[in-house]
Task: structure prediction
Amino acid sequence: MKINKNLRNIFLILFATLALSACSTAKKSQTSGDVYTGTDTVEYLASGVKDRVFFATNKSSLTTKSRETLRKQATFLRKNKNLSVTIEGHADERGTREYNLALGQRRAEAVSDYFVLNGISKNRITVKSFGEEKPVAFGQDETSYSKNRRVEIN
Result:
């Protein structure tokens, strides 16, 4: 009788473990803090060089990852002196329209300043802010917001 009870408990534990593991999904996070790090919205300026960088909420400071991307872009631009770029600043939908336009401008200026410090002539750079007007992700969750807090280099 005791063996049957122990056997029944083992089966219950096994069943519960299988049921719980079947229901769980391991989803890899695409954010570091609140900065987007995934690649599904990233295109390429040149072979292997991402065309955008992402920012934390209400921030315009460059992250280590964004500086790595911008360093590669600056190298590409130094080799291709005939190219000019447009730097577009974007924000997520939270905040007023005016605040988001100003934030997008600060983000774009931060990227422009990085390029100038790395040998790209200011004459080759155009800076624009779109604020919240051109989202790439339409959702009201942190992943969508983090994809929209970006600067695109065209």
